[in-house]
Amino acid sequence: MIRVYLDWNVFSRLDHNDDIYKRLTTILKDDSKYIIPYSPAHLKDLYRSYKKVGINGIDGYLEKLQKYSKSLFVVYTIKDVLEFQFLDSRESMQQHIEAYDEHEDFGFSVDRMKDALGPFSSIFDSLFEIQLPNFLPIGNNETKGNIANTKGSELLKSLLGTEETISMKDMMQNMLTISSTLYEDNNYSNWRDGFQKDIKVSGRIKDKRFSPLKTLDENAQKLQKTNFMELFENTLIGEDRKSLFNKIIALVRQLDFHGFYQDIIEEGHHLDNIETDYEHIAYATSCDIFIVADKNTKEKAALSFELLKLNVRVVTPKEYVDFVEENSAEIKDGQHLIDYLFWVSTVEPTLKINERNALYIPSFVLNYFNLASYPIDNPKSVILQKMDTPNRVGIFVKEIETVAQKLNSFYGTPINELGKLGEDSYFIAWLTKELVLIKLQLSLGNFTLEITQCEKLSRYEKFIKKSKYIIGKVFRELK
Question: Which residue did the predictor score with more confidence, 449 or 358?
Fold first, then answer.
């Protein structure tokens, strides 16, 4: 089955009368082909509406999440990995509301933090009274001039003030204030614009005639780094280093800060909304396809996945609808599947995997496999699998079962079956009259379909093979 992640703008428009979304809805409602999870990022988008219209006002959207996700919820866990859970959308929304209401009620201040510590707060009094030197007003004239001529100087002033010293408490309070308002005001946009002017970001970064990576590398070199990815890796701290999920969000944020399809900060669309878009990008790595309506999000997602070597296709609703409608030919029967795969082995390979030529198949064979590989010296043996990505989240029993049922309908009773669906290992095989061997196997987390044309033996070859078998058996008994 094909896993599809929808950003909120797309998810919320399913079932709409718009032509593209009507056609997309018709495609995605086939739950024998598609798996469509929802995530905490969808709940964050809904929470903003909830604050305006209440729970009854968002019930229709919760019903839509439930209808298409079938309760499948992809979440980032305390183990620093993505995980699929089954949770009703209304239940997960209620949990989200309770958590966020409590978060908003807490407030941001040093005194509030001290109150929360109760009788232990006094141990921090001496720390808060420490006076820190402020290099903005006390530096030499050259230093002050260099700083004053940068757009980023306003950020430093808001953090350190303009006096010669600042107390630890005041600096912490300034930091908390900046953090608490950053998601709701225009400060992020101002700082981003200041950074880009300070390093003189080239306008070519969005020009399709030029490689964005070249411009990003030039930006990095202005900051004394060899290339953009070296600069990015050097900026990662804490949680961003621990998990791919956080690393993706950090990379998208960095691309935006460098001017690559940067998001617009405006009334009703502040950094809070933009960060949720970045979470959608990170959650999308649990799937095969990411369908997104916003151009800025689409471009940043595609480049981020390319830089991190993540195999997720990023498309707009129209691009996906057009692709499916133009490539909708189904595998009709077992012979059609065999003919198609042996034809694939004649196409110019695009990849090489473990000494095997390989070809990416964007249309997903049997609604699951999108990578075909075959030995360079034996095009009559083809292995199908799904392109791997570091954030791939398991294999559903339903995915294996759907493929196995389709092959059963093609080839009839299998010649062998080991294990059961749902177990860690599973094997099932069929043999056609033309001696084509079809093997479907789950082993060590890898799910593959192998199709091999066996050789027909002459009478003499059969006699030699049978003789070798008898001699070998006698030898083993004598031994």
Answer: 449
